[in-house]
Structure prediction request, 275 residues.
Amino acid sequence: MTATKFKYRLDRRSRRITWGTFAAIAALFVGFHFIWGGAYLPAWFLLLLLCIITLFVLSFPRYLTIDDDTLQIHCIVELTRIHVEEIETVRRIDRSHFRRMIPLLGSYGFGGYFGYWFHLSDWTICKLYTTERKQLVLIEDIYEDIYIVSCPDPDLLVTLCTVARDRKREEIYRHALAAGKLSPESILPENTTPGNTRAKAAGTTSPGTEAAGTEAAGTEAAGTREAPPSPKEPFQEEPSGGKGTPPADGAGLPAKEPTQNTNDKREKRCCSTSI
Prediction:
């Protein structure tokens, strides 16, 4: 993806404050030169004021660019670079979010709204690079640093940041997999597909993971099958002298003695009596 450039533009309030500040400095310079005659204290105060104003001017945001690797915020002499794979959250915010912020060290309209600002609701410190109070985009990285930028097309900026982040994270994952730093069973990290779709929630797994899951399912199915019936054992008595349970078919029972006829017994008894 080629670098996309977004230029900053001052809103009406920021333009008024900027030109009013320059007019006030020019009036003070004329007054110090013609009224006080270049005295020591007025000259020292004017020099300090000019140094502070110069620092503010050097920090004026000019434009920002987004490509496959970084999001860059260009000021006059300052450059802030945010790697796209380190972006955790990127979303558009409304004007009410800006109203709950106060500047700690920065500009409130002179050349824009930039510097370190404090958010009263969240109790967080944000770094602003804006020139207007609307069309704002909040960017939070993995280090919990918060950046707020303004853009003529904030929706496009959010889309480009999301697509570049997901593409970069997927590329890093493939390189780590090729280098052997990750196992084939591991899945892609979160937020790696375009549209901020989580790979885990979508159910996408690597071929190794799918094969491992199939093998585990087969093992589980095999474990639930009934074991084949064991051969019947002969009847045995319990050690305590109790009777065991005879097998169903009568196998293992002692052989029965042949029974004599009742008439034969009576004849034998009669013969012994007669004798």
About this structure: Residues 154-178 form the longest helix (25 residues). The CA atoms of residues 70 and 83 lie 4 Å apart.
